[in-house]
Amino acid sequence: MKVNIVSLACCAGCVSSFIDSHEAFLEILSQDFEIVYSPTFIDLSDIPNVDLSIVEGGIRTDEDM
User: Fold this and answer.
1) Cα(30)–Cα(28) distance, rounded to whole angstroms?
2) Residue 65 lies in a domain
3) Mean pLDDT over all residues of the chain?
4) How distant is the alpha carbon of residue 3 from its chain centre?
5) Cα-based distances in Å from 28 to 2, 17, 51, 57
6) Element (H or E) spanning 6, and its range?
7) Residue 2, phi-psi category: left (phi > 0), alpha (psi -120 to 50), beta (remainder)
8) I want to staple 50 with a disulfide (CB 3.0 to 4.6 A). Which of 2, 18, 25, 63 is the partner?
9) What does pTM read for this prediction?
10) pLDDT digits over 31-54, tens only?
11) What are phi and psi of 44, to 5 degrees?
12) Does some domain include residue 21?
């Protein structure tokens, strides 16, 4: 399953802390999922199609929607 991690009103440190503090979460993702996009860890100009999006942070602008 292809997964992306999208950050809205949050910083890269929040994403890094989330991943660092949840080693079991990463273990599950690395076995069953392929993370194909995360602006914190993967530099791509286009967001690829995915099966599951993990969205963290809050909506604060029209662009976030």
Assistant:
1) 6
2) no
3) 75
4) 8
5) 13, 17, 16, 22
6) strand 2-7
7) beta
8) 2
9) 0.58
10) 777 778 777 777 777 878 999 888
11) -130, 150
12) yes
In one letter, which amino acid is 9? A
Structure token pair of residue 5:
């991690």
Spatial contact of 17 and 52, defined as CB atoms under 8 Å apart: no
Cα R_g (the chain), whole angstroms: 12
Residue 2 amino acid letter: K
Q: How far apart are CA 37 and CA 25, in angstroms?
A: 17
Taking 80 as the threshold, does the pLDDT of residue 60 lie above it?
no
Q: Which two tokens stand for residue 35?
A: 């993370």
Mean per-residue pLDDT, 49-63:
82
Domains of the chain: total: 1
Total count of residues recorded for the chain: 65
User: For residues 65 and 51, what is the distance between their CA atoms, to the nearest angstrom?
Assistant: 18
For residue 14, tell me if it sits in a domain: yes
